[in-house]
Amino acid sequence: MLTRAKELYLKYPATLLTTILFFLCSLYATFDCPEYAAKISLAHIFWALVNVILLFSVVFLISKIPRFGIIFLIILSLVLTVDTTHLMAYGTRIMFGGVASMFETNRTEAMGMAGHLLLYGVPVFLSCVVCLYCMTRELKKSRLKVSVFVALALICAIVLPIALVMKDVQRSDHRKNTFREYPLFVIQEVIGYRYPIGYGSLLITAAYLEETRKMNQFADKERVLPEGVEFKGLEGMPQTVYVLVGESSLRTHYSLYGYDIPTTPFLDSMYREQQLYKEDAVSPASLTRDAIKMTLSFATPNNQNLFYENNNAVELANLAGYSTYWISNQDKLGVYDSNIGLIASSANHIEFHNYKKDDLELINIVDSLYNKEKHQVFFIHLKGSHLPYPDKSDERDDVLAKSFPEDRKGFLSYDKTIHHTDRVVKSLYDNIVSRKDSTSSLVYYYSDHGEIIETGHGFLNHGIEQFLIPFIAIPHNFQFSWQDMINRYLNNGEFNSVNFINIFAQSIGYSLSDEFADRAKSDGPYYYHVDRKVYNFNDIKK
User: Fold this and answer.
1) pTM, entire model
2) Beta strand ranges found along 300-405 (DSSP E)
3) Residue 260: strand, helix, or coil
4) 260: which residues sit within 8 A by CB, 6+ positions away?
5) Domains in the chain: how many in total?
6) Where in this chain does the record put each Sulfatase N-terminal domain (predicted)?
7) Which stretch of 169-173, 291-295, 408-412 has the lowest confidence by average pLDDT?
8) How far apart (Å, rounded) are the C-alpha atoms in residues 524 and 156?
9) Are residues 10 and 151 in the same domain?
């Protein structure tokens, strides 16, 4: 037997090595999934073997393609590179939210992330190409039957998945209905974690593209106010409302929230002077596409369809008689190709600046659009603190370096982005005050989600830092009962920004019934994760 093994090794060294690497990657990729305990089990081993058999069969069949096999080999190498790079960099397989972010992330942000992953991606791709090429060279000479590997590929890619999906949808009528409405989503949900390398990410991509197609169908659907929400009028409401949406901003790195480095001197001073309200807040999602969707619409972790059924925040302002403005420092995506694009399309005035401006420049644009004769709402989407950090601050933020101990210099680049955002809020407030008119104004600032510093966000089982965000309100020439309004939505003293739209609605003349507010408060303990599942904050990895 040892002699036979030695013969196989000498004849197929690249094939054996690559197959072992496939198996180890497939096995490791299941460890961070909630469906499995973080221990090797028979289930881990079985599905890793099935994943390897499928990949081996595909490579074998590629080796038998006479002329164009190299094209399929490169395509397979690219797919495996994406999966393996994500696994190496973040310790998890790619999930639905990750695929969606790849498609919806703007070019500038994507290039920044690509640079962050370049250390892994280039050597992984080259290794994949070399290993698969050598493997196909060896298998091309083998006398194994093509029909056997066609059958194996069909069993692994079609027969087993069908059996698993059919078993899953029989669990309840809810699962059957979900499958009827979103078949590809259910398929990727059931199959994705069992085939983490190669096949799973392709299924997830197909499910995302199908979701986008369905979103296009819903885009022009007439939306209405939710039951329990009613417009009462603009009397006593602020004439100008500013909604600043930050990016990847972790509140535990704000001196306003107790951080020992003075990252937010302006906000600190406003709080000392009792001109600012702040709350400990959490985001309902760790990806921008999901977080913005749920903070600027009535969608919740438990009911995403409300995004299409009810008016979003921009539409609420339009209906109330405000002129609306969407000023973004991020790239413009297809108006109906993303959740954010669909919300932005409702504004009367839309600008996207493709990451080409400093966030401070957005405030100058907003100031130029201000008209004291109108009721106005400005939605200002910052680039904030997204990776890479160095280009999100300037030399004036270098003042923080004096406050940093040597053993924490790794946080300096990120903390400078927080300091820069503090200056953005200050610039907006200074413009409001300098007008010296009697116009009433209200500034809201919150971040889409938090950040695991130098890693990013949107990772399953990677800690609560992805969700910890600031939430701030600054009124000017305007009085309102902040505590009465915010207390309706607090859970254990914490505000889930899924309820921001409710706060916003009350600020522009809408009344919300107690029954509606109670339902909204019940959404507070939950978040919507990258695997498109709903979790309780009490269960999150600290």
Assistant:
1) 0.72
2) 323-328, 349-352, 376-381
3) coil
4) none
5) 2
6) 239-474
7) 169-173
8) 41
9) yes
